[in-house]
Design a protein that fits this description.
Mean pLDDT: 85
Bound molecules: iron/sulfur cluster
Helix content: 40-55%
Distance between the termini: 86 Å
Shape: elongated
Number of strands: 0
Radius of gyration: 26 Å
Order of helices and strands: HHHHH
Largest sheet: none
Low-confidence stretches: none
Strand content: under 5%
Number of helices: 5
Structural class: mainly alpha
Length: 117
Amino acid sequence: MRRLRVCVQVCPTGIDIRNGLQYECIGCAACIDGCDQIMDKMGYPRGLIRYTTENVVKGKYPDSGIIKHILRPRTIIYTALLTVIAAAFVTALLPGCRYASTWCVTARRCPKKRTKA
Ligand code: SF4
């Protein structure tokens, strides 16, 4: 099969994505569009260049298994924990929060507690 160079011609950074992922890539997807257009014209399946994971390329699981692989119990638990921590932090920073005035960086800068007038 003849090697086509459309992906290289349309790349704004001038890299050859056929050599694998490279740090110069800005993720503009111009190579994906160019490759898909050529594959459509030639009657080949799309997706020769696509967003995917290293494990899919190595054949560990199919493209359709990416979401299932991401939604594992560990990632769900970590996401829930981070959400709770972030919500607690934002809530503590809200004006009027009774805990916000007791926080200080150093003891010298800690403001004195307000007394009710
Ligand atoms: S995504 Fe854009 S920058 Fe990256 S290889 Fe493709 S055309 Fe080049």
